[in-house]
Amino acid sequence: MLYFIFFKKHSNNIVILSVPCYTELQKMEGGQPMLPQERDKKLTEYLREHEIIKIDQMVKLFGISIETARRDLTRLEKEGVIKKIYGGAMLITEEELEPTTLERLSKNLVEKMAIGRKCAEFIHDGDSILIEVGTTTLQAAKALKNKKRLKVVTNSIHVVNELMGTDSEIYMIGGKVRHGEGSISGAISIADLENFQIGKAIISAGGVTLERGLSDYNVEEALVRRKVVEQAKESILVADNSKFGHDVLAHVCPITAINLIITDSKLDPDLIAKFEAANLNLVLT
To answer: How many other CB atoms are found less than 10 A from the CB of residue 187?
Structure first.
């Protein structure tokens, strides 16, 4: 909040008066300060026109504190609206927007099914595993239905539905449900993972590069995936060729944290050569 400071003499004393000053963007009807929803709307309008906003600009435009500006940006980044940059934020571009679950389920389905079957070859009866949310990890879950006595931890409602009726023990971690995605994430999920001994984790990614490793479109899911990789004795990445060479919003982990990478043979030969030169364990279907 911005204030005008007035000095007024009263008898023999000086009285300091502090009067709030609202900027034009900060005002609503009736001259009241903006609600967070109103700030969000004005912020996205500003970013569409100017592409980037700095925190000090937000302070001046909305008459808010630096701390409030930072909280707004953190919240909007978690919601997938903006991407924080040093000292400010920018809108997420169309290329960085996460495809819908329906779009991903049908994209490269043949390749994903082959990747899922190959992944199942590395899982043995009685293993303790974690199957993370994702359309390719879902194909791995389908390929594991005939395995015996698996202990399966997951944050995917779809994986639970797929493995119902098998003799696997299924544990679903707690947390916040992401509607439309069928995933569970958030601080509760990260804390809940501490309760499990994970032998092998089957994970996915929104983007995979040698330089930055794994990344994801959703910040909260990225943080859960990072915890999974830290917790598991062995991490298996299942991802079709379209995920490679792309770096999306939220960093998960370096590529060297992954023990086995399973993808399809349509992966760019130059990328294959680079991954092999980096001594990464790459398996093609």
So the answer is: 12
